[in-house]
């Protein structure tokens, strides 16, 4: 097969490209230029897709003897990931830009371009597994649960999955580094990227303040009493405890958390931890890498990357999903994604729109 290997410049994508080549595929390395001013992005371990990362990817491609290209997707990334990120926070929601990047860039824009150019598939360094099941290809968790990235791949649909390869899913991260070192890859010991790649200093609240400006408003307790002020409700998320700057303490000195963000009134609502617990989740924009569930089915629900999986009853109606957790959990915010599992298999994902508490 003719395969585009998405090469970020890290050790994982380097080994993924190498494995696809060893499997007998015709491989072309592609690095995605996602910033209109890459030199302003963070360097070294803290991000991805910087100028130095492009150089690292090119060195690996040269070592493998495969063609290498840089594809400029900065405009698409800005519109579909960066602007979406800002708009979601402004609307009082908490987005995951990595899921949006996978959905809109790596497995939409990149895959679409690859297929248009006559390639058969895209391979990435994500930690997940593809298994041939009774209904076709299935997306499963990686062997290395500490690195499992099936959550951020839950946005793939069946057609995208049919044109994808994840060669690292059966291997642990230490083994990947050993393999990279044995092949003489310069990036064998390169630290992993983390945080949000387009926020140079990791300060999400500061980044949003620069984009959206100061929007002073009230922080109120659950009974409506004003207990503080803020510079923009967009800078808060459900479950947050630090950085609230409350001026009026509770008589019982109980810790308070953000329990609601109300963008229409520019109000942040805080309360005690017991108010955070929810067990009913409404979501939309469902994505199914295989057949969608019919009726009410028993599945596991994961609410954040590398988070706990919760047993739940799930029902789907088109692009809408209702998840009823067995037990209440805290810190679930609109805008986050719920990814559904049957064992290790990813059933689908959806974006959370509302949460509530079922009567006990």
Brief characterization of the structure:
It is an enzyme of class 2 (transferase). The protein is α/β, with parallel strands linked by helices and 360 residues long.
Task: Characterise the protein shown here.
The chain is an alpha/beta fold and 360 residues long. The chain folds into three domains: 2-125 and 167-182, HUPs (Rossmann fold, 3-Layer(aba) Sandwich); 214-272, SH3 type barrels (Roll); 278-356, Translation factors (Elongation Factor Tu (Ef-tu), domain 3, Beta Barrel), CATH 2.40.30. The chain has seven helices and 17 strands. The protein has helices spanning 11-22, 51-64, 74-90, 97-116, 158-162, 173-182, 204-212; strands at 2-6, 26-33, 68-72, 121-123, 129-133, 136-140, 164-165, 217-221, 226-230, 257-262, 267-271, 278-287, 296-302, 309-317, 320-329, 337-342, 345-356. The strands form four sheets. A six-stranded antiparallel barrel has the order 12-15-14-13-16-17. A hairpin with a 2-residue loop joins strand 5 (129-133) and strand 6. Helix 1 crosses helix 6 (173-182). The chain is globular. It comes from Dermacoccus abyssi. Belongs to the MnmA/TRMU family. Residues 147-149 are annotated as: Interaction with tRNA. InterPro entries: MnmA-like, MnmA-like_C, MnmA-like_central, MnmA-like_central_sf, Rossmann-like_a/b/a_fold. This is tRNA-specific 2-thiouridylase MnmA.
Describe the SSE topology:
Layout: E1 2-6, H1 11-22, E2 26-33, H2 51-64, E3 68-72, H3 74-90, H4 97-116, E4 121-123, E5 129-133, E6 136-140, H5 158-162, E7 164-165, H6 173-182, H7 204-212, E8 217-221, E9 226-230, E10 257-262, E11 267-271, E12 278-287, E13 296-302, E14 309-317, E15 320-329, E16 337-342, E17 345-356
Parallel strand pairs: 1-2, 1-4, 2-3, 4-7, 8-11
Antiparallel strand pairs: 5-6, 8-9, 10-11, 12-15, 12-17, 13-14, 13-16, 14-15, 16-17
């Amino acid at each position: 097969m003719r395969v585009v290997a998405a090469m970020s410049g890290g050790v994982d994508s380097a080994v993924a490209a190498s494995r696809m080549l060893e499997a007998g595929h015709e491989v072309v390395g592609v690095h995605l230029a996602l910033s209109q001013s890459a030199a302003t992005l963070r360097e070294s371990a803290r991000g991805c897709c910087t100028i130095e990362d492009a150089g690292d990817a090119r060195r690996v491609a040269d070592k493998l003897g495969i063609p290498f290209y840089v594809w400029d997707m900065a405009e698409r990334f800005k519109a579909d990931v960066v602007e979406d990120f800002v708009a979601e926070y402004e609307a009082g929601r908490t987005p995951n830009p990595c899921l949006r990047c996978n959905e809109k860039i790596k497995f939409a824009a990149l895959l679409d371009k690859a297929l248009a150019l006559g390639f058969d598939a895209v391979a990435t360094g994500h930690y997940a597994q593809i298994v041939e099941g009774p209904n076709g290809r299935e997306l499963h968790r990686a062997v290395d649960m500490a690195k499992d990235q099936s959550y951020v791949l839950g946005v793939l649909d069946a057609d995208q999955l049919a044109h994808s390869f994840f060669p690292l899913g059966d291997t642990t991260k230490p083994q990947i580094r050993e393999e990279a070192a044995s092949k003489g890859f310069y990036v064998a010991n390169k630290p992993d990227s983390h945080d949000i790649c387009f926020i140079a200093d990791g300060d999400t609240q500061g980044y949003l303040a620069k984009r959206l400006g100061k929007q002073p408003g009230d922080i109120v307790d659950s009974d409506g009493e004003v207990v503080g002020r803020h510079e923009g409700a967009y800078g808060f998320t459900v479950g947050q405890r630090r950085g609230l700057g409350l001026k009026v303490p509770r008589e019982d000195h109980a810790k308070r958390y953000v329990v609601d963000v109300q963008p229409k009134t520019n109000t942040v609502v805080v309360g005690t931890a017991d108010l955070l617990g929810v067990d009913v989740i409404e979501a939309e924009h469902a994505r199914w890498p295989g057949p969608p569930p019919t009726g009410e089915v028993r599945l596991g629900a994961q609410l954040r990357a590398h988070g706990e999986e919760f047993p739940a009853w799930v029902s789907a109606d088109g692009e809408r999903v209702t998840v009823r957790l067995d037990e209440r959990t805290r810190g679930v915010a609109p805008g986050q994604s719920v990814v559904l599992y049957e064992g290790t298999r990813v059933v689908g994902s959806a974006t959370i729109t509302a949460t509530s508490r079922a009567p006990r």
